[in-house]
Amino acid sequence: MSNPTHLQYTKEHEWLTAAEDGVSTVGITKHAADALGDIVYVQLPEVGDTVTAGETCGELESTKSVSDLYSPVTGEIVEVNEAVADDNSLVNSEPFDGGWLFKVRVEATDELLSAAEYDALTNPSA
Predict the structure, then answer these.
(1) Integer Cα distance of 60 and 71 in angstroms
(2) What is the largest CA-CA distance in the chain?
(3) Which residues contact 80 (CB under 8 A, 6 or more apart)?
(4) Cα 69 to Cα 45: distance, rounded to the nearest angstrom
(5) Shortest CA distance to 74 belongs to which of 6, 1, 3, 10?
(6) Listed residue (103, 106, 95) closest to 28, CA to CA
(7) Which of 111, 113, 82, 114 is nearest to 98 (CA)?
(8) For residues 95 and 77, what is the distance between their CA atoms, to the nearest angstrom?
(9) Cα–Cα distance for residue pair 114/37, rounded to 1 Å
(10) ∠ CA(10), CA(75), CA(32), 5° rounding?
């Protein structure tokens, strides 16, 4: 699967939009959602929390396992996706659209990958 080229990615399988007015949207990739299986519980940071690039900021629990959610940037959480809190399956069915997880006012970024670099990471034989 080709990943949207307008996004940036982490080696931990999160994606990040370009900042608009200093705010970026964060979610997990289709690759991560597929690997996890059906998401049954999502623990997100709260509005006002400060997250640090590369550090855990939540959890995703699936029928297979529990996985940490890492923040791709350092900043303050300004919004969480309440729709995902109400319907965890959005993370699986719409990972790049309605399944986004939170919005953060970006102060600093960690090492981010382009779509091509992330594709090479997740599908090295392609």
Answers:
(1) 13
(2) 42
(3) 44, 45, 46, 47, 101, 102, 103
(4) 10
(5) 10
(6) 95
(7) 82
(8) 19
(9) 25
(10) 25
Q: Are 10 and 29 in contact (CB under 8 A)?
A: no
Cβ neighbors of 14 (< 8 A, separation 6 or more) are 26, 27, 28, 29, 32, 69, 70, 71, 72
Report pLDDT digits (tens) over 40-75: 999 999 999 999 999 999 999 999 899 999 999 999
pLDDT at position 18, please? 93
Give the distance from CA 85 to its chain's centroid.
14
Q: Are 40 and 85 in contact (CB under 8 A)?
A: no
Q: Would you state the structure tokens that stand for residue 8, as one six-digit string?
A: 């940036």
Question: How far apart (Å, rounded) are the C-alpha atoms in residues 7 and 14?
Answer: 10
The answer to whether the beta carbons of residues 14 and 33 sit under 8 Å apart is no
Question: pTM to 2 decimals?
Answer: 0.94
